[in-house]
Amino acid sequence: MFLIGSHVGMSGKDMFLGSVKEALSYGANTFMVYTGAPQNTRRKELEDLKIPEAKALMAEHGIDQFIVHAPYIINLGNAVNPSTYELAVSFLDKEISRSAGMGSQVLVLHPGSHVGEGAKTGIKKIVEGLNQILRADTPVYIALETMAGKGSEIGSRFEELAEIYEKTVHSEKLRVCIDTCHMHDAGYDVIHDFDGILTSFDKLLGISQIAAVHLNDSKNPQGAHKDRHANLGDGYIGFEALYNVAHHPALEAVPKILETPYIPSPENPEKKVAPYKEEIAKLS
Ligand code: FE
Ligand code: FE
Ligand code: ZN
Predict the structure, then answer these.
(1) What is d(CA 154, CA 118) in angstroms, rounded to the nearest whole number?
(2) What pLDDT does 39 receive?
(3) What are the residue ranges in the chain where pLDDT is below 50?
(4) Contact, 177 vs 213, CB < 8 A?
(5) Are 231 and 217 in contact (CB under 8 A)?
(6) Looking at the CA of 178, which ligand is closest?
(7) Which residues of 243-269 are buried (b: 16+ CB within 10 A; e: fewer)?
(8) How many angstroms separate the alpha carbon of residue 182 from the centre of ligand 3?
(9) pLDDT computed for residue 73 by the predictor
(10) Ligand 3: centre distance to CA 229 (Å)
(11) 8 Å CB contact between 49 and 102
(12) Residue 51 alpha carbon to ligand 2 centre in Å
């Protein structure tokens, strides 16, 4: 089955139930949520998320996989400011329980930024953090996302992710989330050589490690290191290449998640609306 969805919100009275309703409104059969605002670490208690109601609605519609994304402000790679690093560790620890409590197996994480200390130091710090967090009985996988390489981001090269795997004690709890916009911005040729990308990924990490695909076009040319997502077909990658990633036989069982930008509403251009229903229909 083609697993396709988008990131959806989680707020208001309905919380997680609202997330599932939103996903269904797009015709999705999987989805991704942040457990609160992606730019802060304030979170509600599990019992306030309407989890049983959400699970019942998912079961009714045959949705059995979804993904949680950790907030992008946490940084395990910060070797300069101990409180930033400590916050990342303690937040992730709780985010793992929240993800498991909601019923997700996969928690996507931006590996981190070295904030000027160099990739070697950043990777060391990230590994230190993962070794503090991951145990043999950790109930979810942490999926390291491939990054665009803007600023001092770690993880724009598969080699860096492979190094994190090598040094993490419970690397069996790690997975990878590949992001098409990020790989293209990092310099990989998503347009003409996605098979080549998968081959080098397979050599370094193993294709079975891909637990999620973020499907986004890019507003910038290959190698730009910018990380600005575009709607499918409106960017430099183009619809055809993205369609081929979405339907690549090696990734059949992997959820594809759209993180494309909201677009002006056809009725009221002042208002922005989600493009996901149309993009999912185009891909299906
Ligand atoms: Fe991300
Ligand atoms: Fe992404
Ligand atoms: Zn991005």
Answers:
(1) 9
(2) 83
(3) none
(4) yes
(5) yes
(6) 2
(7) eebbeeeebeebbbbbbbeeeeeeeee
(8) 6
(9) 87
(10) 6
(11) yes
(12) 25
From the CA of 255, how far away is ligand 1's center (Å)? 14
CB atoms closer than 10 angstroms to residue 162: 17
**DSSP β-ladder status, 32-33 and 4-8:** parallel
Q: Tell me the CA–centroid distance for residue 258 and ligand 2, in Å.
A: 8
Q: What are the distances in angstroms from CA 22 to CA 2, 198, 237, 271, 282? A: 19, 32, 27, 18, 18
Question: Cα of 95 to ligand 1 centre, how many Å?
Answer: 15
Contacts of 235 by beta carbon, 8 Å cutoff, 6+ apart: 181, 216, 217, 218, 219, 220, 229
Q: Which ligand is nearest to the CA of 182?
A: 3
User: To 10 degrees, what angle do helices 194-204 and 158-167 make?
Assistant: 20
Nearest ligand, CA 72: 1
Residue 225 CA to residue 167 CA, distance in Å, equals 26
Tokens standing for residue 258: 């759209």
Q: Are 79 and 85 in contact (CB under 8 A)?
A: yes
| DSSP E strand boundaries for 165-255 | 174-179, 210-215, 217-218, 229-230
In DSSP notation, 269-283 reads: TTSEE--HHHHHHHH
In angstroms, how far is CA 106 from the centroid of its own chain?
A: 9
Tokens of 156: 């724009």
Burial 190-210 (b: 16+ CB within 10 A, else e): bbeebeebbeebeebbeeebb
Q: Which ligand is nearest to the CA of 229?
A: 3
